[in-house]
């Protein structure tokens, strides 16, 4: 095998492993070294609409978020940002990859936004970031169904979130 082929295979292996890598250790709601994954069957159109912030790493932060899907590759997000500090948000969020991987310029600290899970009927969703700097649970209705919130919290726990730091 030539050196060029070996180098190409090494590059492909590195890219494959990068998708499974642990996030860098920073101030985090997630356990150091924990793996994280996004929702593989994410449907951007079904995710669009109004959501209520149920739980986040910001105590007492609540409000609504409206994710207006443009039908192509982005949302217009308006509402409450409960990621880094309570704030209003009004900006474009771009779909950057499969599995509900998103990015905003300023909202959510400008970090990648991953939809970690959404229930089959898109009633409850879990958003977070690979760094673990923030995570939140959203619901279409208030009050949310307790069984769906329990499932959302289990997903956050599975993705390494310290659930003692994520609450109402």
Automatic annotation (TrEMBL):
Domain of life where this protein originates: Bacteria
Annotated InterPro entries: Calycin, Lipocln_cytosolic_FA-bd_dom
A Pfam family assignment: Lipocalin_2
Keyword Signal included in the entry's annotation: yes
Leader sequence residues: 1-20
Keywords: Signal
Ranges for domain Lipocalin/cytosolic fatty-acid binding: 113-166
Protein name: Lipocalin/cytosolic fatty-acid binding domain-containing protein
């Amino acid at each position: 095998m030539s050196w060029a082929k070996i180098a190409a295979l090494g590059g492909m292996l590195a890219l494959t492993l990068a998708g499974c890598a642990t996030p860098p250790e920073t101030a985090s709601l997630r356990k150091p070294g924990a793996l994280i994954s996004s929702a593989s069957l994410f449907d951007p159109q079904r995710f669009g609409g109004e959501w209520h912030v149920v739980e986040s790493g910001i105590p007492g932060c609540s409000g609504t978020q409206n994710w207006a899907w443009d039908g192509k590759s982005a949302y217009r997000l308006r509402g409450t940002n409960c990621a880094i500090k309570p704030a209003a948000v009004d900006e474009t969020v771009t779909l950057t990859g499969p599995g509900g991987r998103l990015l905003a310029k300023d909202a959510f600290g400008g970090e990648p936004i991953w939809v970690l899970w959404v229930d089959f009927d898109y009633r409850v969703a879990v958003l977070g970031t690979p760094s673990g700097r923030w995570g939140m649970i959203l619901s279409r209705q208030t009050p949310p169904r307790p069984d769906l919130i329990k499932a959302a919290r289990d997903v956050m726990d599975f993705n390494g979130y310290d659930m003692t730091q994520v609450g109402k």
